[in-house]
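Throughout our pipeline, every protein is held as a single compact record rather than as scattered files. The record that follows is passed on verbatim for readers who wish to inspect the format:
___
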Amino acid sequence: MTPSHYFGPPPADALAGLRVLVIDDDTMVSEVVCRYLQAADFDVDQASDGPSGLQQAEVKRPDLVILDRMLPLLDGVEVCRRLRAAGPVPIIMLTALGEEEDRIEGLEAGADDYLTKPFSPRELVLRVQSVLRRTRPEAFPDGVLTAGDFTLDLSAHEVRLRGTALVLTGREFDLLAYLIWRPGKVLSREDLLRSVWGWEFGDLSTVTVHVRRLREKIEVDPARPLLLNTVWGVGYRFDPGTAEPGA
C-alpha cells in the first residue's frame, strides 16, 4: 500500500526549493519567468530549444517543466510527449497560439496546464504552485491518528471505532482514513474524487455510493448520520465527536 497517494496536497511553503525547468527560446520571456519563480523560492534551470530542454530534464530531474510550444530544433508538443514518456513530471505549456485546437493538442500531448502569451508572470507562478500542489502528495503523519472514537493505524491498515476494528473495503478504508485526517472540514465530492480516488474527472455518484456504504458501517442510524454529515450544496463533513445519539 502507498497511503500517501490519496492524501491531500502540501502547503505552499512546502513547495520552496523545488526545481523548475523553463524551456523557452524567447530570452526576455525566459528571464522574466525565471526571476518570478526564483522570487517564489523555486530553484530554476533554463533551456532555449527542444533538445537541450530534454537533456536538462534528464540531468536536472525537475519537479515541474514550463515549456514553450514553439521551440527551435524540436517542437514543444513533441518535447512534451517525450517528457511525458520519460516520467510523470508536471508540465505547463506556454504558447502564442490560443486557439482551442492548439490547447487541445498541447493537453493531449500530456501538458497539465496551458497558458497563452502574453501572460502575467504572477499568474504563471500561481499556476506552477497549483499544479505542484495537485501532483505532490503530502506525507501522511507517522503513528496512530485519533479522531473522536476513531483510531487510524495506517501502517497496520486498520481503523478502530471504540476499540473495535472496522471491516472495510480498500476504497472505504481510503475514504475513512482521509476523513479522519480532515475532521471538521467540508469536502466536496470533487475534492474526494480527486484526493481519494486520484481522478480529475469521473462520476460523482461514485463518492455518494461509498459515503452511503461507509455510513452503514460507522453510524448508529445511517439514515440520520451524526459522524459523516451532508453539507447541502457543498459536500460532506466528518464530525467524529459523537458516534451515538445522546452520547
In short: Confidence is low (pLDDT under 50) at residues 1-6. The longest strand covers residues 19-23.
